[in-house]
């Protein structure tokens, strides 16, 4: 069964008297273990699609199913629980919680899941080690570089053992070297741990690493290619 | 819950200066309210003590019409027997009789209208402020039917000293066109510090006063005074079952209705002031919490994106409000205690404004006013401040629940 099943998905925004069609009847399936990139120019709808898949936004029409569960049929609290238990998010601007240390950020989702403290801490340490931040567990975000912060965000996204990680322009704020390292880390997580990734990105390096590239133009899928 | 509390605590210290100013604002407001209440409590208790000891008693037996019409004719007959019964019933209490009449005091050089008080000298020596403030001579002795003591200013105006002779005339209760008169010798002169007392009062023993008002064994009041207010209710209940010769037994609240009303009105007025002060402070807290929330909209969006329920986010904001409230309540109570301390030990001196004393509802208040700690009320105010602070965070918390994750994440 596909982890993500999108059917006839549209999203319109009202800007004054004008309606902007950010997404136009998109249909897409994402299978477990895929490393998928949504690419396209700015305004093509890739971030909109990512947000709709993550249940952060509501579609104008169509449906999104995560592991068979229709997001539209869920209450806001149920969507929160789905994101907590089955999805991971990585944002362009890292978006760590500034008052928490790297380890506490990594275990934040586990805390929401109600995992015991010992288990949380062990898992956080494990994920920080996987993303190459062993020894930096006690640092606050403002004590970490941009690349390190994004690695913490990756650790947070995978700590809860999600079925799917959604990453919106994760390398956009990073320098080339750091970006390469981060892509390698996520690829490693994909190949070694079977974590399913869906990226919205312009970064050609991410596209090079992808198994599948979905090209969006004007809110429609223009091309869907697999490596 | 513990991680949320920890996060809330850290959130409060993100903007340390703002948090400290907010806590100080609430704490100082709370501390001032507690201090003002403590000062008022000290004044009220002083007023009540003075009123009870000097004007009524915890329990007082008097003519049923006396409260409405304090006419010299409205007496309690058989006052000695009533006093003895009350004393037997309350062996630890002071029981005293009083007669109040208007009269004319005449010396060889002057005649002045004055208030004539008949007293039982022994118990009254422990109750009357003047007893400890004799400037010349001595307090009256029991059974002294010709002795008189008077205020220092009155003595000066009459041109008399100890051992001088004074004639006191009082209207005949049975025939206002006639009067009775009696010759006294001055035994002592007091300076009570209460202008009206020192200017216009004389005191004589009960038998002498009874002779002036033509009362066989009468008095206007038979008062029972306890060390504390605690036995008052049961003492009143027992007094009501006694043979009082047609008189009535009243509580001090009934006998001093104006004083009781004054204190209640003053208390309510102060509470209104506290409420307004609290409201202003709480507006500040709402502003602080709202700013704190609006600064973190994006962060809240991320937290919702990773699975935190809006209700939990609201809980986080409420916990922040609760921590603010607890800190403010504790610090405020420390400040309230500290603010009160000098007022409870050294007092607040109003002598420049009001002289040595000021009459309030017939009770002489000293210019040096002392606060009295009211622990229960301080805890109550601290609790109210805490609850109000938590409530002040409720609106910002509610706003958090209305956020859409996508809008919040995009917030800049």
What proportion of the residues of chain B form beta strands (DSSP E)?
15-25%
Q: Number of helical runs of chain A? A: 8
Give the H and E element order of chain B.
HHEHEEHEEHEEHEHEHEHHHHEHEEEHHH
Distance between the termini of chain A: 21 Å
Largest sheet of chain B: 6 strands, mixed, barrel
Q: What is the mean predicted local confidence, pLDDT of chain B?
A: 90
How many whole angstroms does the radius of gyration of chain A measure? 17 Å
Question: Radius of gyration of chain B from the CA trace?
Answer: 31 Å
**Main sheet: strands, sense, barrel of chain A:** 6 strands, mixed
β-strand number of chain B:
14
What's the assembly state of these chains?
A: heterodimer
Helix content of chain B: 40-55%
Dominant shape of chain A: globular
Outline the low-pLDDT stretches of chain B.
Answer: none
Determine the fraction of residues in helical runs of chain A and give it as a percent range: 25-40%
Q: What series of H and E elements makes up the topology of chain A?
A: EEEHEEHEHHHHEHEHEE
The secondary structure category of chain A is: alpha/beta
Outline the structure in words.
- The complex is a heterodimer of chains A (227) and B (412).
- The model of chain A has no long low-confidence stretch (mean pLDDT 89).
- Chain A contains eight helices and ten strands.
- Chain A is globular and about 50 Å long.
- Chain A is 36% helix and 29% strand.
- With 227 residues, chain A is α/β, with parallel strands linked by helices.
- A six-stranded mixed sheet of chain A has the order 6-7-8-3-9-10, with helices on both faces.
- Chain B is an alpha+beta fold and 412 residues long.
- In chain B, the strands form three sheets. A six-stranded mixed β-barrel of chain B has the order 2-3-8-5-7-6, surrounded by four helices. Chain B has a two-stranded antiparallel sheet with strand order 11-14.
- The longest helix of chain B has 39 residues, at 16-54.
- The model of chain B has no long low-confidence stretch (mean pLDDT 90).
- The interface between A and B is medium-sized, with 30 and 22 residues.
């Amino acid at each position: 069964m596909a982890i993500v099943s999108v059917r006839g998905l549209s999203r319109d925004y009202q800007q004054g008297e004008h309606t902007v069609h950010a997404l136009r009847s998109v249909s897409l399936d994402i299978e477990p273990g895929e490393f998928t990139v949504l690419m396209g120019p700015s305004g093509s709808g890739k971030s909109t699609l990512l947000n709709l898949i993550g249940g952060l936004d509501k579609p104008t029409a169509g449906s999104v199913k995560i592991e068979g569960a229709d997001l539209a049929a869920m209450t806001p609290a149920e969507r929160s629980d789905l994101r907590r238990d089955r999805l991971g998010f990585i944002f362009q601007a890292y978006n760590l919680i500034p008052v928490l240390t790297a380890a506490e950020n990594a275990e934040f989702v586990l805390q929401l899941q109600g995992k015991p403290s010992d288990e949380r801490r062990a898992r956080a340490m494990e994920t920080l080690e996987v993303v190459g931040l062993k020894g930096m567990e006690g640092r606050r975000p403002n004590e970490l570089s941009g690349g390190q912060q994004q690695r913490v965000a990756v650790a947070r996204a995978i700590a809860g053992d999600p079925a799917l990680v959604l990453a919106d322009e994760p390398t956009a704020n990073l320098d080339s070297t750091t970006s390469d390292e981060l892509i390698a880390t996520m690829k490693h997580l994909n190949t070694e741990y079977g974590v399913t990734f869906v990226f919205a990105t312009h970064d050609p390096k991410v596209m090079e690493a992808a198994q599948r590239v979905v090209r969006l133009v004007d809110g429609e899928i223009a091309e869907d290619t697999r490596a | 819950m513990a991680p949320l509390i920890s996060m809330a605590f850290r959130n409060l210290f993100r903007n340390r200066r703002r948090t400290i100013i907010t806590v100080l604002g609430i704490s100082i407001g709370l501390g001032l309210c507690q201090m003002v209440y403590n000062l008022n409590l000290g004044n009220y208790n002083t007023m009540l003590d003075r009123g009870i000891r000097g004007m009524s008693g915890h329990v007082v037996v008097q003519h049923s019409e006396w409260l409405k019409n304090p006419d010299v004719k409205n007496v309690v007959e058989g006052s000695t027997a009533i006093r003895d019964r009350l004393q037997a019933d309350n062996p630890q209490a002071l029981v005293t009789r009083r007669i109040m009449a208007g009269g004319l005091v005449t010396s060889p050089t002057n005649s002045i209208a004055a208030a004539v008080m008949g007293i039982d000298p022994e118990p009254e020596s422990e109750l009357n402020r003047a007893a400890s403030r004799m400037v010349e001579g001595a307090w009256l002795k029991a059974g002294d039917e010709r002795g008189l003591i008077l205020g220092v200013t009155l003595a000066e105006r009459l041109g008399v000293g100890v051992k001088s002779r004074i004639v006191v005339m009082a209207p005949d209760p049975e025939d206002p066109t006639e009067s009775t008169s009696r010759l006294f010798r001055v035994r002592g002169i007091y300076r009570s510090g209460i202008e009206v007392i020192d200017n216009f009062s004389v005191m004589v023993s009960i038998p002498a006063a009874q002779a002036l008002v033509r009362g066989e064994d009468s008095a206007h009041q038979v008062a029972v005074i306890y060390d504390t207010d605690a036995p008052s209710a049961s003492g009143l209940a027992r007094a009501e079952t006694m043979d009082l010769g047609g008189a009535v037994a009243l509580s001090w609240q009934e006998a001093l209705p104006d004083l009781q009303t004054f204190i209640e009105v003053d208390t309510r007025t102060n509470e209104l002031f506290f409420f307004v002060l609290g409201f202003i402070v709480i507006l500040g807290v709402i502003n602080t919490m709202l700013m704190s929330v609006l600064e973190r909209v994006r962060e809240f969006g991320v937290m919702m994106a990773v699975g935190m329920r809006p209700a939990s986010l609201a809980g986080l904001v409420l916990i922040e409000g609760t921590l603010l409230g607890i800190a403010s309540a504790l610090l405020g109570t420390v400040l309230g205690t500290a603010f009160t301390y000098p007022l409870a030990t050294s007092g607040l001196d109003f002598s420049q404004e009001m002289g040595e004393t000021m009459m309030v509802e017939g009770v002489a208040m000293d210019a040096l006013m002392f606060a009295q700690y009211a622990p229960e009320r301080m805890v109550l105010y601290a609790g109210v401040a805490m609850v109000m602070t938590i409530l002040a965070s409720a609106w910002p918390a509610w706003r958090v629940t209305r956020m859409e994750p996508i809008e919040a994440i995009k917030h800049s």
